[in-house]
Specification:
This protein is an alpha/beta fold and 442 residues long. Helix content is 43%, strand content 14%. The chain is built from 16 helices and 14 strands. The relative contact order is 0.15.
């Protein structure tokens, strides 16, 4: 925002009284773009300003309980699926890394990378069964840098429910000359019809979520990889919710998430031919590190073409340490933790179905979206949850379409049976108060 001159107190007073009217170039005509943006997000902005479940300040954490002001709540908004954010073995190990490396190596990776990066990339290559891996700070960094490079001015085929940051990466690719074609979520016939046309520019890339953060369901990676190879395009998978949770199948798996948490490609029994997988450690592993699993040739290209590798500050040492130690804990305890998440999630889903509440979740993975019948009452629903001591993820327009407004429950290994029972009791109360119609929504 342009500030008024220091010697113009009248302009300063006008800006203080009406910052929207006097921002930018100082008149309403120039600020119409800002007013349009505010109107398009007014539902979210209204709740963000007034609701205790949005923009909350967390004052204290005790296991999977959080304190907001004077109120203690059970946290079902966390995506720390394996509970490694609270794992003493990891917490106790991090000071040793800090003493050796300091808090933050401030070089971009182009100039120098602590050996921790190489160790993580080697561990990932072994765990995922991929040819190579490149570690960068966040999944957002990867989407907005790798997608434009891999698009190569060709055509991107994007799942309609792909993550917003995939779409941002595609928009950046489009600005560089790529074409973007959207297909309906899960509609492989639609995608195949697009790929079978002859009027699209090569190279091509299909962009999807491995596990949808909207529905909680996995993509059909096997069918999508087959289509990618058949039409000689790349399959680009954001596996943020799958990595650490789903993995290779085996007769002795403790639950149907599979074993080892080595991602959606291995869970589908697929190879990395024509496939790249992007994921972060920030969910299952509770650490702010991300990676792209890819062929060595692609890694080499990204090291000279991806802006975060060339220019961005690196991940903090504590994050790199948390990722490494988390990978070690996963090898010892990961399957047990995933089995607990599976059991707790099953308890929530059984209660949801018993109450007749609609949810798109079919997989048993620990993301359970629940819609409200009247989107205008989402604030009341959130108030009841908060008053009963439940903290959940509010899904408000425009974060989701209006007919999907509601809330999401995330289950983690740090939640307890008693906390799940508390949630199930509150769901029953929600049904009694907020479900006049349609029959299957709250």
């Amino acid at each position: 925002m342009r500030q008024p001159p220091a010697d113009d107190p009248a302009a300063a007073a006008r800006q203080a009284a009406d910052p929207v009217a006097t921002s930018g170039w100082g008149n309403r005509r120039d600020d119409r773009w800002l007013e349009r943006w505010i109107r398009s997000t007014e539902d979210l902005a209204r709740l963000q300003d007034s609701h205790r479940m949005l923009d909350a300040v967390i004052d204290e954490v005790d296991g999977r309980r959080i304190r907001v002001g004077e109120r203690w709540l059970t946290d079902f908004a966390s995506s720390n699926y394996l509970g490694l954010d609270l794992e003493p073995e990891i917490i106790d190990a991090i000071p040793g890394y800090l003493r050796r490396w300091g808090t933050h190596p401030s070089w971009p990776r182009l100039l120098g990378s602590p050996a921790l990066y190489r160790q993580i990339e080697e561990e990932l290559t072994t765990l995922l069964g991929c040819e190579d891996a490149l570690v960068l700070p966040t999944v957002t960094h990867i989407h907005t840098s790798a997608i434009p490079v891999l698009a190569g001015g060709g055509t991107l085929f994007v799942d309609s429910l792909a993550h917003k940051m995939i779409y941002d990466g595609c928009a950046m690719a489009q600005a560089r000359g790529a074409a973007v074609r959207r297909f309906e979520h899960g509609n492989l016939g639609w995608l195949e019809a697009l790929l079978s046309q002859s009027n699209w520019r090569r190279p091509g890339m299909i962009c999807i979520d491995g596990v949808s953060g909207v529905t909680g369901n996995p993509a059909d990676v096997r069918a999508l990889a087959s289509l990618a190879r058949e039409h000689d395009v790349l399959l680009y998978i954001d596996d943020s919710h799958g990595f650490g949770m789903v993995g290779e199948r085996s007769p002795d798996e403790p639950c149907d998430y599979g074993r080892r948490g080595n991602g959606s490609v291995r869970h589908a029994g697929e190879s990395y031919d024509n496939v790249v997988l992007v994921a972060g450690f920030s969910k299952a592993y509770s650490s702010e590190v991300a990676f792209i699993a890819c062929a060595t040739a692609i890694k080499r290209m990204l090291k000279t073409a991806a802006a975060p590798y060339l220019f961005s500050g690196p991940s903090a040492v504590a994050s790199l340490a948390g990722a490494l130690e988390g990978l070690r804990v996963n090898e010892v305890s990961g399957d047990r933790l995933r089995a607990k998440v599976h059991r707790l999630t099953r308890g929530v889903l059984d209660r949801v179905r018993e109450l007749g509440i609609a949810t798109p979740s079919e997989s048993g993975l620990p993301i359970v979206p629940l819609s409200v019948a009247d989107p205008g009452r989402i604030g009341e629903v959130g108030d009841l949850l908060f008053d009963r001591g439940i903290y959940a993820t509010m899904a408000v327009y425009p974060l989701v379409p209006r007919d999907e407004v509601g809330f999401r429950v995330h289950v983690t290994a740090a939640n307890t049976d008693e906390q799940v029972e508390q949630l199930c009791a509150v769901l029953g109360e929600l049904v009694g108060r907020f479900r006049p119609a349609p029959p299957a929504a709250l």
